[in-house]
Structure formats: structure tokens, C-alpha cells
Amino acid sequence: MKTLNSADVDIKYWLALLRIEGVGCKTFASLIEEHSPEEIFTATETELLGWGIKKTIIEAIIQFDWSLVDYDLQWLAQPNNDVLKITHPLYPEALKEIYDPPPLLFIRGNSQVLSYPQVAIVGSRNPSALGSKTAFDFAFALSQYGFAITSGLALGIDATAHQGALSAGGYTIAVVGTGLDRVYPAKNKELALEIINTGVMISEFPLGTMAKASNFPQRNRLISGLCQGLLVVEAAQKSGSLITARLALEQNREVFAIPGSIYSPLSRGCNAMIREGAKLVETPQDIIDELSQYKQRINFLRTEPEQSLLDLEQQTLLNLVMFSPTSIDDLVESSAQSVESIAAQLFMLELQGYIEAITGGCYIRVK
Asked: Is pTM beyond 0.70 here?
């Protein structure tokens, strides 16, 4: 489902700033603290220098190739494609908590899935038969319970976890290390299409970004940042999965590991993690018990709203109210409606039990 964000008049400036060499997540955040991306691209060179922007970045801004953004906008015009600014209400709250959240998230599929409680499942690209079965079974069971399954679309454990969630009729989120106009690895193209149909693929990388080794550790912090808990199924002692697990610990996420034979190289990473404090799990119920605080939220998500009771305008607004506090200012920005119109609709949604008012002039969705 497309969000209103892709129609924002200033989105082209956000997309352009993302493509400026030397502007990473932290620099982007610093730049927009004082000035919007539109102001940055319409300012004079003297003004940019006065704002303390580096000369190399100023040169890149002045010489920017706007045809790149034209390509982005053409991609965004296609069904199921979107982009979320970090200021948008649908941008995942969990990602805002990490050290360097991406300013933009490119999306293919249903962005609403990003608001679901998530368990990330990662592991070896060359798992054993038992490891593959374990990943599939855990993803299947956790999906049936109501968790969305997050992984990285890689071969091996990642792909099997996505397949387990899909087989359960659940939701799965693929976080990738390329632009969303391509699928890597190519072997997972059909799987990617399945994910888009019911779940969502996301990337922080601009369209056209090729697969590079340095992209994947960067991608991994989003896998861990999005989830409430992370499960490592099989991992060697030096692997990307262990990097993801350590990032999850730094981000205060629950980390789980499947124990294995002391003679198996694929178990050494998990066994080492358990020694370092990861929770040993043997069944999906072990994870469910540890993440029991999300049961109420999952139950709300399982309750399908009686959409026939809502008109299109009310349903559109309801889709923008999160299961975390959402302010009227956020709703005004994302819906382009007046405060008076939104207030009237919120009143009706509250009467019908879809949302609740909380302190601070905010609302939360309850079903």
C-alpha cells in the first residue's frame, strides 16, 4: 500500500541529498537539524558556506545531476514502491532509537508490516540440513503466533526464514544491501516477489546501488534495529550473523541462539554467543515467553478492523495512526489535511474503538 509520503513536494530534495557523496546518516541528520533539504538545494553557495557545510559537499550540491532523482521518482510512481522519510509517522520507531538511523527507507510492499513486533532470524549462507529445518520451523511457529520475521534475503538461513514465515501465512521483512531496483542474490528473485506480495522489502541504499561487501554490515544494523528479538540459528566463529547479533546487543534487543555440537564449525558462533550472554533456545516457545510483553500488541494486530464501518478518508487516517504515540502534528504533516478535519475523524475513530487518546495530545492505534 502506497503511503502519502511519496507524494510529498519536497521528497526530491531528500532523495538528492541522500545521493551526495560524503553525506552519510549522521551528516544528513546534522544538516537537516537547521535546514530542510529543499533549503539546502535552493541556497546560494555563500549561504551554504555560512551554514558551515564542507566545500566538497557544497560542490556536489551545486553540481548535482537531477536526472538521478528523475529515475527515483519514476520508480516511486510504480505500484508497491515508496520511500519513508525519518520524519514520517510510518517510519519505524525502533529504528529511530539506533545510533545512526537512515534518513530515508526505500520500500517495496506493505509498509504497515514495519509496525509489527518482529523477530529477526539470521545465520549461515551454507547451513546444514538441520539448520535449515530449524530456521524454517522457528519462523513458521513465530509467524503463526503473530511476529513478523525479519531477515536479509541472503542464501541459506535468511531465505529459509523468509520461506517459513510465508508458509505460515505470516508476514516477513527483507532488509537488503542494494537498491530496491535489483535483487541480490539473483537466485532469490522469486522469493523477493513473494515477500513483496504480502510483506515488505526495505533498503536505505539509493536506487542503482550494487551489491558491495561494505553494504552488508551496514544493512545488518537495520535487521537488528527493527526487531524486538534476534535469533541466530547457525554461525561460524567469524560471520556476519555474529556482527548482527552484537549490534542487537548494543541496541538493547533480546538475542537468542540455537546451541549445537561442539564438533560442528557452524555451531561454534552460536555456542560462543551463549557463553557471552545470548539466551539459549530450544523451541519457539522459549522466544515467545521471553517476548511475552508484545502479546497484547499482537492480539490487537490480529483483530481485523471492520473496515466497512469506515469511509475511505477515515481508513486512510487510521492507517497513519501507529501502535506507538502519534501526534496530531504528525498526522497533519503526513495526510495534508486540516487540523479541524483530522480532529473530527479522530473523534469518530475513538468512538468506534480503533484508537485511544493518551497524554501529550497523542493517539495510539488499538486495533
From this structure: yes
